[in-house]
């Protein structure tokens, strides 16, 4: 069993920054990829950014140039540095990890005020 725990969400003014963290624990041999998704009220969950075990990153067009995804040295952690936040970035942010199956965290709320 694998558990993902996110942290770092909160309330920030437009133009501000937040850093999300996600740590995976449990029976882990290797993680193929990790990523961040978000879901705003009334909308479907959407991809924000993903990163492979080799460090190859992929971003949604809406966050390119503002968000940066990275892996920790232990490779079972992933971070999302969010800069120049906009009100439309407000959502619950979910971490996921691909280890054969896809595992999800419980989500962390990010609220950007205008």
Describe the overall structure:
With 114 residues, the chain is mainly β. Helix content is 0%, strand content 58%. The chain has no helices and 11 strands. It has strands at residues 2-7, 10-13, 18-26, 33-39, 46-52, 57-59, 67-71, 77-82, 91-99, 101-104, 108-113. The strands form 2 sheets. Strands 2, 4, 5, 6, 9, 10 and 11 form a 7-stranded mixed beta sheet that branches. It has a 4-stranded antiparallel beta sheet with strand order 1-3-8-7, with no helix packed on it. A hairpin with a 4-residue loop joins strand 5 (46-52) and strand 6 (57-59). The protein is globular, with a radius of gyration of 13 Å. The termini are far apart.
Map the helices and strands.
Elements (H helix, E strand, L loop, with lengths): L1 E6 L2 E4 L4 E9 L6 E7 L6 E7 L4 E3 L7 E5 L5 E6 L8 E9 L1 E4 L3 E6 L1
In short:
It is built from no helices and eleven strands.
Query: Could you tell me the number of beta strands?
Result: 11
Question: pLDDT below 50 for ≥5 consecutive residues: which ranges?
Answer: none
Largest sheet, if any?
Answer: 7 strands, mixed
Number of helices: 0
Gyration radius from CA atoms, angstroms: 13 Å
Q: Describe the global form.
A: globular
Structural class: mainly beta
Oligomer: single chain
The average pLDDT is: 94
Distance between the termini: 40 Å
Instruction: State the order of secondary-structure elements, H for helix, E for strand.
Output: EEEEEEEEEEE
* Secondary structure: helix percent: under 10%
Content of β-strand: over 45%
């Amino acid at each position: 069993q694998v558990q993902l725990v996110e942290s770092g969400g909160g309330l920030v003014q437009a133009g501000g920054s937040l850093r999300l963290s996600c740590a995976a624990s449990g029976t882990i041999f290797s993680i193929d990829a990790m990523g961040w998704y978000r879901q705003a009220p009334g909308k479907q969950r959407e991809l924000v950014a993903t990163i492979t075990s080799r460090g190859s990153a992929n971003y949604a067009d809406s966050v390119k140039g503002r968000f940066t995804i990275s892996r920790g040295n232990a490779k079972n952690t992933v971070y999302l540095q969010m800069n120049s936040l906009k009100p439309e970035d407000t959502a619950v942010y979910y971490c996921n990890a691909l280890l054969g199956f896809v595992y999800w965290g419980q989500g962390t709320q990010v609220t950007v005020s205008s």
